[in-house]
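#lab-general

N.A. 3:47 PM
ok so I finally got the sequence cleaned up, no stray characters, all 365 residues accounted for. can someone with queue access submit it? mine expired

B.Y. 3:52 PM
send it over

N.A. 3:53 PM
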Amino acid sequence: MIRSTCAAVLAMVVLGCGDGAPSGMNSNLPTPIPVATNGSPTGSTGFGPTATAPAPTNTNTAAPAPAASTTPNTMVADTTGTGDMGAAGAAAEPPVTETTDPAVSSTNPAPAGSVDPIIPPVTGDCPAFVSGTITFGGLGGIVLEAGPKAAGPTAPMVFYWHGTASTSGEFRTMAGAVHQGVLAEGGVLISFQGTTGGDGLSGTSIFGRGDLDLADQLAACAVRDHNVDPRRIYATGCSAGGLFSTAMAALRSNYIAAAAPNSGGWSFPQQFQTPNYTPALMTVHGAAGVDVVIIDFSTTSASADMAFKNRGGFVINCDHGGRHCGGGPLAPDIWEFFKAHPYGAEPEPWSSGLPAGFNSSCVIY
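B.Y. 4:20 PM
back already:
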């Protein structure tokens, strides 16, 4: 009953950033405010009684350089398939078990050790990796930004998901440093404008589970045709896009290395696709009671933090103290986080603390 009521509210309300500009962001970021509560225990809707969450550890000190991976960057075909598990236009869905081992959930830690990403096979035509707006899989309005092709399979790829009532170009103002970093390394950034069929993953049905099927193919094409490193595929976004990028990290944990939602997190927890890997997570949000559009995004961020952390993932929480989608100034830190966290990084490169100069509002959860 709680799930259906919350889903109906979310489906009717616009959660977004308008034209993508940050709202009410204080340029003088405050001293980090520890996350004191979690919106609800893992496995609930993210609404309701609060539960005490583990206190974040403020270890914002210099960390050693990331260890180089010794596993070759090879593409492995996904023979399991996931498919579209929900009806178009549905306001929300219960957590869906895909390729997940039933014994492994958000409260059961995944096995330790480095693992390989699983890139879906290419099943159709691929786009030309030239910057512009494309139609792919029957969906138009997809922005594709591509840097010069790298000499080898080293380039990053980022999926950016915009807020409700915003546009696919939102990343230029909200994630400029990520965009520029991707292009500088010959990588690919993808940002959808429409949807193949919305559901509760984004809270307002502007993106849906079927869009992840298109993302699978775009990732497969980029790995095959544009020297994208299978270990360097990430997701980020604002508001509804922040909720969707967090869901993508779980539902595509077979190849998403890390996610950094800006005013996102989990309103409806999802099953992870893989039993042996949890993407690294960096949640960026405003103050409790301030970063609110129907739901409190400090609460949804804490819900995701707890779920990913309990499953063994590396988690950073950044409370910038500002308003909704006010995390644009942290884009350089998000890009640094992405670079340091390829898929299956082992050991954790920032286990001893955040690197010197990292935004002071961020703490290891």
